[in-house]
Amino acid sequence: MRVTGSVDKGIAKILRPIMKISVLDDYHDTIRTLKAFGKLAGHEVRIWNDHVQEVDALAERLKDTEALVLIRERTKIRAPLLERLPRLKLISQRSVYPHIDVDACTRLGIVVSSNQHFGMPSYATAELTWGLVISAMRDIPGQMASLRAGNWQAGVGSTMRGKTLGIFGYGRIGAVVAGYAKAFGMKVLVWAREASRLRAREDGYAAAASKEAFFEECDVISLHMRLIDATRGVVTARDLARMKPTALIVNTSRAPLIEPGALVAALKAGRPGKAAVDVYEEEPVRDTGHPLLNMANVVCTPHLGYVTREDHEIAFAEIFDQINAYVAGKAINVVNPQVLGSARK
Fold it and tell me: Which pairs from 339-345 meet CB under 8 Å and 24+ separation?
């Protein structure tokens, strides 16, 4: 574990009143190296580089915290913890918030600020998606392992040209991934809610006749949906069983989009033949016995989709702007606006 101290007060104009801010789960001690970090000049900032989920440990760490910065969904913030943080006034983060008990925050007078309307897609996630597609189709990890073991080629891969890429969920990232497919000479087939399918058609892509047809026809399927109640488990065991034995499924979105246990079972059954995953039910994954890490037909990365310096600069500039707006008495991107009249002072 590594803990940083306060922001250099000489970086920028000192803000009043000073807030005690905690940042959780900064695995690589990256936040304080960002240009955006200067936005917190004058505040007292503590950064934690390890991951802790136990309520007792978190309550002790955060007992003096007034503003809590979360990095995506790395730590669950539930009522048992919130009730032990009497000084907490603000949670600032970006994107969806299934890991935060918003009702408990509202009851306790804690403002939750989280920007849901990004100015641009995560190009980093779209790029990693293609990195995973290529790695899986050409078995790059397996070929590297063969070389390191003193052997030469370890099998024959597959090209992408002429094959069908399925985009499940046609939002900002899905649209970028579909656009990249043109460079590889792939056909694109989309399945999503009706409004998204209409946008895909307007962008020149075909929409599948049905969800069943989508899973049956695609050679590569990439998931690009937010995790909300309506999308949890949206990819079922039956869907996966419809995929070709030569097909690949890629998930750089959220693991619970797939029915629990269904992916491992489907891969063992041979439909689809391969998977490439960047997200897991419980993170971080420390168990080397995790089934996905031990399957030759799976490429795994440790939730790297948005983990680039460029994406961090954009995201944390917004997160820190939310803190400063709160300090100025003009909270922004508030997901529980009903709390504003009774927020903690």
Answer: 339/105, 339/106, 339/109, 339/110, 339/111, 340/111, 342/109, 343/89, 343/109, 343/110, 343/111, 344/87, 344/88, 344/89, 344/108, 344/109, 344/110, 345/89
> Residue type at 206?
A
Q: Which distant-in-sequence residues (6+ apart) come within 8 Å of 191 by Cβ?
A: 166, 167, 168, 197, 207, 208, 211, 214
Element (DSSP H or E) covering residue 217: helix 211-217
Which residues does the annotation mark as catalytic?
Answer: 254, 283, 303
Q: How many CB atoms lie within 10 A of CB 63?
A: 13
Residue 329 CA to residue 317 CA, distance in Å, equals 18
Rounded (5°) CA angle 170-174-175: 85
The pTM assigned to this predicted structure is 0.87
pLDDT at position 11 is: 44
Euclidean distance between CA atoms 22 and 62, whole angstroms:
7
The model's pLDDT over 50-74, given as tens digits with 9 standing for 90+, comes to: 999 999 999 999 999 999 999 989 9
Tens digits of residue pLDDT in 229-279: 899 999 999 999 999 999 999 999 999 999 999 999 999 999 999 999 999
